[in-house]
Design brief:
single chain; 168 residues; alpha/beta; 6-stranded parallel sheet; 3-stranded antiparallel sheet; 5 helices; 9 strands; 34% helix; 19% strand; binds flavin mononucleotide
Length: 168
C-alpha cells in the first residue's frame, strides 16, 4: 500500500489548523504528519505520496523552512512520487501575490520529476495575480483564513475527496 505524508510547520497557527482538518478528512491512520522544520532527504525517500503546506510569506515567497530546504530538494529525483500542495494566503492583503508559494513549491517539485495532483478551480477568489494559477486553475488548494475562513471546511472536504482519487 502506498504511504502518504503531510508536511507542514508544527509551529504555525493557521496552517497547522488547516493541516489538521486535512488529516481528519483522510483519517489519522492513513496519513503521517511530518514537521516541515525537521525534514531531510530521507523523509522524501520513505513515502510515495506527499501533501505539502506552503503558506505565502514575504510578498510572494516561500516561508523560511521551505526556502532553506530548496537546494536539497532541487537535487532529488522525485519521479514516481505524487505531490499535492495547499497553501494559506490573503487575497485582500496581497492581491498581486496571492498564494504564490503554492506555485513556487509545485514548480520545484515538477522540475525534480514529481507529479503534482489536486488542482482546483480559482472561482470564488478575488485577486490580481498568483503564481499558483496555471491555465486558469490553481495547481493546489488555496486557503484564505483572513477573508474566507467560512469556506475552508468545504474546500478541504472537496480537495480530500479529489486526492483520494488522484493519489491512488
Ligand atoms: C509579512 C507577511 C507577508 C505575507 N505575504 C503574503 C503574500 O505575498 N501572499 C499571500 O497570499 N499572503 C501573504 N501573507 C498572508 C499569509 O500567508 C497568511 O496570513 C497565512 O494565513 C499565514 O499562514 P501561517 O501563519 O500558517 O504561516 C503574508 C503575511 C504576512 C504577515
Amino acid at each position: 500500500m502506498s504511504k502518504t505524508a503531510i508536511i507542514y510547520s508544527f509551529h504555525t497557527q493557521k496552517s497547522k489548523k488547516v493541516a489538521e482538518k486535512i488529516i481528519d478528512a483522510f483519517g489519522k491512520k492513513n496519513i503521517e504528519p511530518v514537521n516541515a522544520e525537521e525534514i531531510n532527504k530521507e523523509v522524501f525517500e520513505q513515502f510515495d505520496n506527499f501533501i505539502l503546506s506552503a503558506p505565502t510569506w514575504f510578498d510572494g515567497e516561500l516561508p523560511n523552512y521551505w526556502d532553506e530546504f530548496v537546494p536539497e530538494l532541487e537535487d532529488m529525483d522525485l519521479k514516481k512520487k505524487k505531490f499535492a500542495v495547499f497553501g494559506l494566503g490573503d487575497q485582500k492583503g496581497y492581491p498581486e501575490n496571492f498564494c504564490d508559494a503554492i506555485g513556487i513549491l509545485s514548480g520545484i517539485i515538477e522540475d525534480c520529476g514529481g507529479k503534482i495532483v489536486g488542482h482546483t478551480s480559482n472561482e470564488g477568489y478575488t485577486y490580481e495575480s498568483s503564481q499558483a494559477e496555471k491555465e486558469g486553475k490553481f495547481v493546489g488548494l488555496a486557503i484564505d483564513q483572513e477573508n474566507q475562513a467560512r469556506l475552508t471546511n468545504d474546500r478541504v472536504k472537496n480537495w480530500v475527496e479529489l486526492l483520494n482519487k488522484e493519489l491512488k
